[in-house]
Amino acid sequence: MPGSGKTYKIAVIAGDGIGLEVMPEGLRCLQAASKKHGFTLSLTEFDFASCDYYEKNGKMLPDDWVELLKPFDAIYFGAVGDPRRYPDHITLWGSLLQFRRQFDQYVNLRPVRLIPGVQSPLALRKPGDEKIDFWVVRENTEGEYSEIGGRIFTGTSREFVTQETIMTRIGTDRILDYAFKLAQGRPRKLLTSATKSNGISITMPYWDERVVEMSKKFPDVKVEKYHIDILTAHFVARPQSFDVVVGSNLFGDILSDLGPAITGTIGIAPSGNINPTGEWPSLFEPVHGSAPDIYGKKIANPVGMIWAGQMMLLHLGETAAAEDMLSAIEQVLGRGDFSEITPDMGGKGRTEILGRAIEKAILDM
Ligand code: ATP
Ligand code: MG
Fold it and tell me: Where does the record place a coiled coil (predicted)?
């Protein structure tokens, strides 16, 4: 296969805990896909954004991290933090959340896709049932997670606490634009908006209003809206009916954890923090954290890391390679070989065994 012949510069940050164990498997599979599809991944590994780096340097990132990372096409990230060593407000706030803000990664994107061979905690599904396969698009920079607010009369009976939600025209329209375009590119072209305009009476009606306004630019996309409470119920009761779901920072956060939960183990779910303009690098990572409880046992499921690599290839435009990677994941998990799949999926496999099985499936595609 001739392939695109392109070279992509990827910053590789393994981080902490099982991030260090699943990263080699992700890279192994990415290399297989790039070899097969005729493009090059130029990888540069960094040791910052980890507890070890913090221990040596007293900070999570070097002073010139923005200039260091800006030239990369994407950041491939493992996991950060170990609450037994340092609190999350140092490790997480000092690294991932800095990236998210500085690199204006205003889209958080997660697939919700039930892979054959993976048991959903929902009722048993039969062969031939409609597929569970949709995207959750979360606004990643504003909304309910502002730090604007305050607390007065602390400790008295007149204690008063407030925190504001920020919704800007630019911030709202750009996340909706991304979600509409994503829906437009899919066969069903259905966009579901999460709202709560019957309870949150100023910002959420504004969100709804922008959805209606933006929908005029995408007449071929069908739009529906649900209040967040009933929407979570629909996620569980009829996940097969969704295509692309978009929500504010808080609602998107809730839905993007619920989605992967109904499609099996946290060990397989990936996530993208995306700057669609391309001005700054986007970041791809597994949903799971550093899992100190299993670190060192070499049983961490590498599929979340590998699937995050697959999302990175989609983002870079290497669609055929990305399709192969996803098919390879489906093929290996689908055959459900107990000697390959990791204990979180009920098997006896090890991180590297499962990684190598998927690598081989990619090469054999
Ligand atoms: P963080 O705060 O970084 O999200 P956490 O401890 O809250 O970390 P995880 O690190 O994601 O959350 O771990 C949650 C649970 O899921 C742990 O019991 C962990 O062992 C398990 N787990 C997480 N990732 C994997 C994986 N890749 N394979 C198997 N088990 C995993
Ligand atoms: Mg957690």
Answer: none
**Predicted ipTM beyond 0.90:** yes
User: What residues sit around ligand 2, an ion, with C-beta below 5 angstroms?
Assistant: 289
Pick the residue whose CA is nearest to atom 17 on ligand 1: 291
Domain 120-263 homologous superfamily, CATH: Isopropylmalate Dehydrogenase (3.40.718.10)
293 lines ligand 1 (CB under 6 A): yes
Q: Closest ligand 1 atom, CA of 300?
A: 28
Give the DSSP letter string of 301-339.
--HHHHHHHHHHHHHHT-HHHHHHHHHHHHHHHHHT-TT
Residue 131 half-sphere exposure toward CB, CA atoms < 13 A: 10
pLDDT value at 134 more than 90 = yes
Give the separation between CA 141 and CA 281, rounded to whole angstroms: 15
Structure tokens, 263: 């499609």
Query: For residue 287, which atom of ligand 1 is closest to its CA?
Result: 11
Give distance in angstroms: CA of 241 to centre of ligand 2. Answer: 28
In the structure encoding, which two tokens stand for residue 232, read together? Answer: 């979570």
Domain ranges of the chain: 1-106+271-365, 120-263
Ligand nearest to the CA of 96: 1
The ligand 1 atom at the shortest distance from the C-alpha of residue 18 is 27
Distance CA 349, CA 110 (A): 26
- Determine if ligand 1 sits within 6 Å of the CB of residue 301: yes
Q: What is the mean pLDDT of residues 35-53?
A: 97
Model pLDDT for residues 197-242, shown as the tens digit of each residue: 999 999 999 999 999 999 999 999 999 999 999 999 999 999 999 9
**Is 80 exceeded by the pLDDT of residue 126?**
no
The reported pTM is 0.93
Instruction: Tally the C-alpha atoms within 13 A of residue 63's C-alpha that lie toward its C-beta.
Output: 0
291 CB under 6 A from ligand 1?
yes
CATH number for the domain whose boundaries are 1-106+271-365: 3.40.718.10
Q: Are 275 and 72 in contact (CB under 8 A)?
A: no
Same fold, 1-106+271-365 and 120-263: yes
CB within 8 Å of 194: residues ≥ 6 apart: 225, 226, 227, 228, 231, 245, 246, 247, 248, 251, 252, 255
